[in-house]
Known about the structure:
- This protein is α/β, with parallel strands linked by helices.
- The protein has two domains: 2-30 and 222-406, 3-Layer(aba) Sandwich (Rossmann fold), CATH 3.40.50.2000; 58-208, 3-Layer(aba) Sandwich (Rossmann fold).
- The chain contains 15 helices and twelve strands.
- The strands form two sheets. The protein has a seven-stranded parallel sheet with strand order 1-12-11-10-7-8-9, with helices on both faces. The protein has a five-stranded parallel sheet with strand order 4-3-2-5-6.
- α9 links the parallel β8 and β9 (300-301).
- The longest helix has 26 residues, at 38-63.
- Mean pLDDT is 88; it is low at 1-20.
Amino acid sequence: MNDTLSNLDFAPAQVPGKRPSPVVLYGPAVTPPPDERPGERLREAARRGWLLGRTPALLAWGLLRRHAVAVPAVTLVNRLLVIRTDRLGDMALTTAALSDLRAHFRHARITLLAPAAPLALLVAHPAVDRLVELPGKRLPEGLVGRVDMAVDFTPDETLRGALLASLTRAPWRAGFAAAGREAFFTLRGPRARCDRHIVDLNRELLAALGVARRDSLPSLHVRPQEKTDAVALCSALGAAAPRVVVHPGAHFPSQRWMAAGYAAVVARLTERLGAACLVIGGPGEEEDLVKRIRSATPDALPIRPLSVRQMMALLSIADLFIGNNSGPLHVAAALGVPTLSVMGPTDPLRFMPCGPADYVVRRPIACAPCHRGRCWHHTCLVSIEPEEVARAAQAILEALPARRLAA
C-alpha cells in the first residue's frame, strides 16, 4: 500500500470544464469463493426475462401516444419539474444537472419532486424554486396539467419516475430509455448505460433537452445558522480539528465494510493524529452498526440521531468523511469535504464522488463490481484491512494544509 499511498500527494487537480478522474487505491487482488447460490442466478434470469417481455408491450403502447417532434425553445418552458424517486446519494449526484438546468432555463420556475429525506438536501439550493414532497406512489394533484416540461433522472429500468412524469401531462417529458420505460416520454432520451458515471449520464440526458454542456459538479448548500449549530455540537463533545465523520452504514448489506474495521480506523486516527472521530448512522443504524463501533473503541465520539439538515451541517465542518458507498458519502463530496470510501460490489467509475479530494479503497476481484444487494462471501470487503484505510485517511488529513494553501 505504500506505493499506492504516495499517489495521494499527486492526485490530479480539478481542471475547469473537466471532471477529475477517480483516484482508486487498489490493494492486492483476491479470489472469490465458488458461487454457492444458484438461486440468485435464477432470480436474476427471471428479472431479465420479465424486462425483455415488458419492453415490446410498453413500446407498442407508446406508439399510440402523441410525441413531441422537437426540443422546445427555452422561452416555451416556464414550469419545469424534476423528478427523483430514490435516495440521498442519487439526489446529491443530481445537483450538477440541476445547476445546468438552472443556467439554461433561466426564466423557468424549477420544481423538484422527491421523497422527504432527499428533498431536504435541496433546501436553500439556488437551482430550485420549489420543493414538493412525494408522499407515496401518486403524483400530487397540484402538478397535474401545470407543468411544461418534466424530467425524470432515474438511470435504470424502474418505471415509477417515468409514470409520474407521464401523469403530469406535460407536453415535453424526458428520461432515460431502459426496458421500454421510454414509452412514457415525449422526447427521445439516451439509454441508461452502466458504463457511465451518473453525473456524466445525466449530462447526456440534458444534451437531449438542448442544454449546453457546462460540466457542473454536484453541490449542496448549508445555511450559516445550521453550520453554527454544528460547530456548537462539536464543541460540546470536545471535537477539535482534525474532525473525521465516519458513516459505517449503506442501503444494501453488501455495501457495508465491517464495523470492527471502522472501529480500528477510528482508534488509529485518534492515536496517530489526535483526530476527533464522530460516528453517525442513519435510521435503524444507531442501535446496530454505530453502537458496535462505540463499544469497540472509546475513541468513537457519540452523536445523537441527526436530521438530514443536521447531518449536512456536521459534514460541512468535517476535515474528512470515511464510509461506504452511501448517501452521506455523496452529500459530503457535494459539500466539498474530502472523502475516503470503501467500495466492494459498487463500481467506482459509476458512483465515485466527483471532486478532486475523493478517494476509494477497493480490491481487484473477479466478481466485482456486481451491484448485488446481498452476498454470501463479501470477499471484496472482508479482505480490506483496517490499516490500509487508516493509512490512506492519515495521508489525506496530513495533506490538508497544503491543499488549503493551493485552493
